[in-house]
Amino acid sequence: MxxxxxxxxxxxxxxxxxxxxxxxxxxxxxxxxxxxxxPSERELQNLFQCGRGVIRQAIRALKQKGLVETRxxxxxxxxxxxxxxxNVGESLALFLxxxxxxxxxxxxxxxSIDRVIAVLVIARASASEKEELVRETExxxxxxxxxxxxxxxxxxxxxVLNILLAKMSKNPIFEWVMEAIxxxxxxHDYALYDDPDIVxxxxxxxxxxxxxxxxMIQ
Length: 218
Prior knowledge:
It is a single chain. The chain is mostly helical and 218 residues long. The chain has 12 helices and 2 strands, in the order H-H-H-E-E-H-H-H-H-H-H-H-H-H. It folds into 2 domains: 15-80, Winged helix-like DNA-binding domain superfamily/Winged helix DNA-binding domain (Arc Repressor Mutant, subunit A); 85-217, Four Helix Bundle (Hemerythrin (Met), subunit A), CATH 1.20.120. The protein has helices at residues 15-28, 41-48, 52-64, 85-98, 103-124, 127-145, 151-168, 172-186, 191-194, 196-206, 208-211, 213-217; strands at 68-71, 77-80. The N and C termini lie far apart (60 Å).
C-alpha cells in the first residue's frame, strides 16, 4: 500500500496561497517537524506543478506567519520553525499598541485572568509548588510596600510570579497566553509601572489577587 502524498498539484489562480496552505497543514499536522527542511524550490515546483515565482510567494507567506525560516549556504533552504511564545508576545504587544490599548485595559484583563488561574492553582498545584508561589509572592509584596518601588525590579518579579502562577494551573493555554503577555510587554516598556496612578491601582486591585494568594492556598 503506497503512502498518501503530502502535497498535491495546484491550479492556476491563487496558486501561491494554496501551496502555502498545504505546507501549513503539513506542518500543523506534524507531517513535517520543526528543524526539518522543506524540499528544494525545484522539487516543490515538480510537486506542485508550478513556477519558481509561485513557490517563492508561498515561502514568503509562511515566513510572515513564522512557520519557516530560510537559511543560506550548502545546507540552505526553507526550514520549519518551532513557534516561540516570546515572538508571539512581541507581535501581541505591537498589535495592542497599534490598537491603542491602554495600560488600564491590560491591568483589568490580567486581574480577571489571575483570579481564574488562582482557582485552578488552589485545586491542582502540589504542596512544593504552593510553597514556591508563597516565596515569590512575598518578594513581590516587599517591593510593593516600598515607598518608591524600583520599576525594573517590580516588573521582573511581577513577570516571574504571573508565569509561575499560570504554569501551576496545569492548563497550557493559560501558560502560553500569560507568557505572551508578560514577554511581549516587558520587552518593550514598563507602561504598567510608569504612571503613579496606575501603580496605585495595581497595589489596590491588579496585584491584590497575587499578594493575597498565600492566604488562599495555605
